[in-house]
Design the sequence.
């Protein structure tokens, strides 16, 4: 497959929408374009699907865009995408969808490195800011293996748990 | 009223060691009396001065008053194991925690490994103004 030409605009990466299926429905569809976040663009470069002026490979991209790349998000995106899941990247999180239509959200993903600490307040703020009762914690180890845990906020009154469990 | 001796950081009734948090619960409910070795009567505030004990006891009481049975979670990496039905295996391994605390990821993984391998789930009981309960489930993706 010939590589698709992508251009950078305001720290986003843009390509024609006709290529949406060719890059596996990665990115957000605008009117006429697909907009890729840096981590999504990096994934496509690593796969050899897209090219960017002045960028020949993965390392070139990482060097040039190190200030806007979030490698935590990239590792999680890469791992889940390689396993066949459909995802989007947002400012502070990764969205994991139930299927390729990207209509129903399965989880918001919260990535963290093994050497970091998990701050309970941050987790609760993250859930509350999006009005979520569950998130997916992705723990990235030093060997780039990722282990996933669902964190489920059971209702304040624990007796409701059994009812809610059916839907989680 | 039943008398319980508090000695060497445990509660004793004759020669039996009683479960620490259950004794505190019964003490608060005025169903027992606790004395130290010098025969001084101790009330519950004597024990709840310790912040950790208070944090744990409040969770114990929360579940106890809702009809759950609790035991020590020591063997499973937590503070309490919580049963919905005493005739079945416990469902949760509870870890009371203050909202401003942080969790070591290695500790998090270790606890969840033990819980998962014993068919339980870790339940972080987060103390803020109210309680929030965060249940953890390992996901194979």
Sequence:
């Amino acid at each position: 497959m010939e590589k698709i030409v992508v251009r950078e605009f305001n720290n986003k990466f843009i390509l024609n929408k006709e290529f949406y299926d060719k890059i596996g429905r990665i990115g957000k569809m605008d009117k006429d374009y697909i907009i890729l976040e840096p981590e999504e663009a990096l994934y496509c470069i690593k796969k050899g699907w897209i090219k960017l002026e002045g960028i020949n490979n993965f390392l070139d991209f990482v060097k040039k865009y190190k200030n806007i790349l979030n490698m935590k998000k990239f590792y999680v995106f890469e791992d889940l995408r390689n396993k066949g899941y459909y995802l989007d990247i947002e400012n502070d999180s990764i969205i994991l969808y139930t299927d390729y239509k990207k209509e129903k959200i399965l989880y918001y993903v919260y990535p963290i490195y093994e050497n970091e600490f998990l701050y309970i307040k941050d987790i609760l703020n993250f859930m509350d800011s999006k009005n979520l009762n569950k998130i997916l914690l992705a723990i990235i180890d030093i060997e780039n293996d990722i282990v996933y845990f669902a964190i489920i906020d059971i209702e304040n009154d624990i007796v409701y748990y059994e009812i809610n469990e059916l839907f989680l | 009223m039943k008398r319980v001796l508090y000695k060497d950081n445990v509660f004793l009734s004759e020669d039996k060691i009683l479960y620490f948090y259950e004794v505190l619960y019964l003490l608060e409910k005025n169903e027992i009396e606790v004395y130290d070795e010098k025969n001084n009567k101790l009330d519950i505030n004597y024990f709840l001065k310790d912040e950790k004990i208070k944090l744990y006891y409040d969770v114990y009481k929360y579940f106890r008053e809702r009809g759950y049975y609790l035991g020590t979670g020591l063997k499973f990496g937590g503070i309490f194991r919580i049963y919905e039905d005493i005739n079945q295996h416990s469902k949760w391994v509870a870890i009371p925690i203050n909202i401003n605390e942080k969790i070591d990821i290695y500790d998090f993984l270790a606890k969840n490994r033990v819980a998962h391998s014993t068919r339980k789930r870790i339940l972080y009981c987060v103390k803020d103004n109210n309680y929030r309960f965060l249940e953890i489930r390992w996901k194979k993706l």
